[in-house]
Amino acid sequence: MSHLWSLGYGGISSETTIHLYGALEGKLIPMIFLVNLPQALLSFLYLTYNALFTSMLLAEEWDGFAHQRKTLRVTCPVGKQRSTYWLQLPYSYGIPLLVMSGILHWLVSQSIFLVRLVVQDNFSSVYWINTYRASDSYRPAGAEVFISRCGYSPIAIITVIPLGALLLFLVIANGFRKYNKGMTLAGSCSAAISAACHRPEKDVDAAVLPVLWGAVSTEGPIGHCCLTSFEVSPPVESESYADRDAMSSIDFGTATGAGSSQAGSGLRSRT
User: Fold this and answer.
1) Cut 0.85: pTM above it
2) Is 86 left (phi over 0), alpha (psi -120 to 50) or beta?
């Protein structure tokens, strides 16, 4: 282990150089693609993690409307509305994920990297390259030959593995978190979101005021749950709730990005 530490991060040594034989031997372009392939994969994983956390936190914020009165989060805020997150995620998630991604990108760049060698005619500058084959053409004395190799750092690779495992563990652990009971999960279903946006007719300023999801007073045996700035009551498990087609939700649905569709699917409360 002490020998690996002595090689350092991104250190060049004859022991940590990948030799590719055949047509790819010493070529610059294939080496560039090879050393940057892990960076591309890491960027893809970052986008995947970002999308996964966005989906989880979107459901969490939606579920929060059943427990705390708050304003809508939109791209262009009006009145008391809240703006979207700068990093798409809450800072408590976005900043650590961005920092971890930056650290992993740096460690990967030190784990596998391009080595550009300048070989003189007497091989004195890099005496340990014994697989080099000079071309059959005549080279004047003192002429330089450039060889591209792929180098790697064992200690950097050892560091990347536990950090990558930690990031995988964190996303799995976050997936085991449970949402608070009380509101039907909608995800990105526009029909369910539209149904929750059918507020009472007199609640004309609901889009720009703090709203809470719950049961509103209705006539008849079928109740209705929606987001409204009026007072609401928690849904009762034994009661049935459905969309109210008589309510217009075009303005309110547009403000929340749910569209103006009239959802007719029944929603039953869960406790």
Assistant:
1) no
2) alpha
- Four-CA torsion 219, 224, 228, 231, nearest 10 degrees: 60
Q: What percent of the chain is predicted at pLDDT more than 90?
A: 14
DSSP the chain: -HHHHHH-TT---GGGEE---STTTT-HHHHHHHHHHHHHHHHHHHHHHHHHHHHHHHHHHHHHTTTS-B--EESS--TTPEEPPTTSS-HHHHHHHHHHHHHHHHHHHHHEEEEEEEE-TT--TTTT--S----SS---TT--EEEEEEEE-HHHHHHHHHHHHHHHHHHHHHHT--PPTTS---TT-HHHHHHHT---TT-TTGGGS-BEEEEE--SSSSBEEEEESS--BPPPTTS-B---TTS--HHHHHHTT--S------B----
Dihedral over alpha carbons 196, 93, 67, 185 (to 10 degrees) = 40
pLDDT digits (tens, 9 = 90+) for 14-61: 667 777 666 666 677 878 888 889 999 999 999 999 889 888 888 888
Q: pLDDT for 177-231, tens place per residue? A: 888 877 877 877 888 888 888 888 888 888 889 999 988 887 777 888 889 999 9
Burial of residue 110 (number of CB atoms within 10 Å: 0-12, 13-18, 19+): buried
The 10 Å Cβ neighbour count of residue 17 is: 17
- pLDDT at residue 268 tops 60: no
Closest CA to 155 of 2, 4, 42: 4
Q: Which residues pair with 70 in a beta bridge?
A: 211
**Integer-rounded Cα radius of gyration of the chain:** 30
Q: Which two tokens stand for residue 116?
A: 């550009």
